Amino acid sequence: NAGVTQTPKFQVLKTGQSMTLQCAQDMNHEYMSWYRQDPGMGLRLIHYSVGAGITDQGEVPNGYNVSRSTTEDFPLRLLSAAPSQTSVYFCANSPWTPHEAFFGQGTRLTVV
Amino acid sequence: GENVEQHPSTLSVQEGDSAVIKCTYSDSASNYFPWYKQELGKRPQLIIDIRSNVGEKKDQRIAVTLNKTAKHFSLHITETQPEDSAVYFCAAPSGGGADGLTFGKGTHLIIQP
Fold this sequence. Notes:
The complex is a heterodimer of chains A (about 110) and B (about 110). Chain A is mainly beta. Chain A has strands spanning about 5, 10-15, 20-25, 30-40, 40-50, 55, 65, 75-80, 85-95, 100-105, 105-110.
C-alpha cells in the first residue's frame, strides 16, 4: 500500500520544454489535488479533481494542465516550462474534498 | 477566496517548554482547520485538525484551539522534544468556488537543547 506516489522525484528542464509529473494513488480516494511549494510561500493549490472526468482550477493554474481519466491517476502537465515554475510539487488525495489531505513525496523541479 | 495568516515565521523554544503558533483566517464560512508538520525534505503530514463545531481538540502533547468569533486558531505543543523541530503549516478550505486548502506560510519551530 504505497498511498500517493509521485514520479519523478527530481527533474531539470530547459525553458520551453514540456513534461508531465505523474501522480498515482492506491487509496481509492475521489479527491486529488496538486500544490506547489516555494520558499516562504507555503503551499498553493494549482488544480484539483473531485472524481474521474472532473477537474478544476485552483489558486495558481496558469501554465499547467491536468486530466483525470481514472480514479488512480492525476498527472500534471507543464506546457512550456518557465524559470518561475521552479518549485517543489506535491500531489495529494483525500477521501472527500478537501479535508485530511495525504501528500505524496513531492517532485523537485528546476527550470533553467 | 480564503486568506490565511500565520505567525510567527520562526519560533525557537527550549526543550521541554511549550510552543504556540497562531493563524487567522478571513472566510467566516470556513469549517475545517488542519495543521501539517513538514520535516526537511519530506512531505507535509497532517498532525491534528479541528472542525468548527468544537473549540478545542487534543492529541497527547499537541492541541488545537479555535475561536470562530475572532476567526483564529492556534496550535499548542507542550513538553517540546527535539523531534518537534520542523516547519508547521496551518490551513483552511479555499472557498470562493475552489475546493482545496489555503495554507499559511509556515512556522519554522526550532527546539533548543
